[in-house]
Design goal:
This protein is an alpha/beta fold. It has one domain: 3-Layer(aba) Sandwich (Rossmann fold), CATH 3.40.50. It is built from 7 helices and 7 strands, in the order βαβαβαβαβαβααβ. α1 packs across α7, α3 runs parallel beside α4 and α4 runs parallel beside α5. The protein is globular, with a radius of gyration of 18 Å. Belongs to the short-chain dehydrogenases/reductases (SDR) family. One of its GO terms (biological process) is monocarboxylic acid metabolic process. It holds the Pfam family adh_short_C2. This is NAD(P)-dependent dehydrogenase (Short-subunit alcohol dehydrogenase family).
Length: 257
């Protein structure tokens, strides 16, 4: 692929920062949605500057199509058409079918799924004109397996997985590839699914067969691979990045010291 122009929907997150660092090595320009307005990205922005490339930092509501489209068109004028959309936005809210309220449900769907649809529709329109592009959703193993403690998250990520397949089918006709990465537990996730209801994440680091957790750098490397010419025949795929966590079935078999 020629020069990357990478749009990251949550650049403040650990996954966003790792992706920035990985794409810097490929000489990328960046469009970064940052809730902190770039304050949380000072180290990464310095690296971009030192690389001689540009980073446009914005803080917009990704559920508003007009705002997203305006942002992408502005970026197109400044640094070029987005070549890679990385949708890594997520919110995990403790919830249960019995007690979750409508506001909580709506917030989870908006951040985790609706924003993915809006960004895909907007970026896809510009990518179609170039007959090229990649869209990568950082999804979750909980698109397939209930969390037991955050059901709205599971529902939203399940929707994203199907969005990817629908988008891969339609946008694929214009040379655009759309894939999902189903992430499992990664270093630093210890509080993410903390629950008094579900025991799924109790001793989670040992439920990975080799008892070695993945890192944000592992995720960034897979994001880069899916954006690169090395993956030109991968479209509409769900790639699991969990070290085998989802396969766990018996606690007595854990590789626990």
């Amino acid at each position: 692929m020629s020069t990357y122009v990478v749009f990251i929907t949550d650049s403040d997150s650990a996954s966003g920062k790792a992706a920035i660092r990985r794409f810097i090595a490929e000489g990328a320009h960046f469009l970064l949605n940052s809730e902190s307005g770039g304050a949380a990205l000072s180290a990464e922005l310095k690296l971009v500057e030192e690389s001689g490339k540009q980073a446009i930092v914005v803080n917009i509501d990704l559920c508003k199509h007009a705002d997203v489209m305006d942002m992408l068109q502005y970026a197109e004028q400044q640094i070029g058409t987005v070549t890679t959309l990385v949708h890594n936005s997520k919110v995990v809210l403790p919830s249960s079918i019995e007690y979750a309220d409508e506001e909580q449900f709506s917030q989870s769907i908006a951040v985790n799924a609706k924003s993915a649809f809006i960004c895909t529709q907007a970026a896809g329109k510009l990518m179609k004109e170039k007959q090229a592009g990649t869209i990568i959703y950082v999804s979750s193993i909980h698109a397939e397996k209930p969390t037991g403690s955050a059901f709205t998250y599971s529902i939203a990520k399940g929707a994203v997985n199907m969005l990817a397949k629908e988008a891969a089918l339609v946008l694929g006709r214009f040379g655009i590839r759309v894939n999902t990465i189903e992430t499992g537990p990664i270093e630093g996730d210890s509080q993410l699914f903390d629950s008094t209801i579900s025991t799924l994440y109790n001793d989670y680091e040992y439920k990975v067969p080799n008892a070695v957790l993945g890192t944000q750098e592992d995720l960034a490397e897979l994001i880069y691979f899916l954006s690169s010419d090395a993956s030109t025949y991968i479209n509409g795929a769900d790639i699991r990045l969990d070290g085998g966590f989802l396969l766990h079935y018996m606690n007595v078999k854990m590789k626990k010291p």
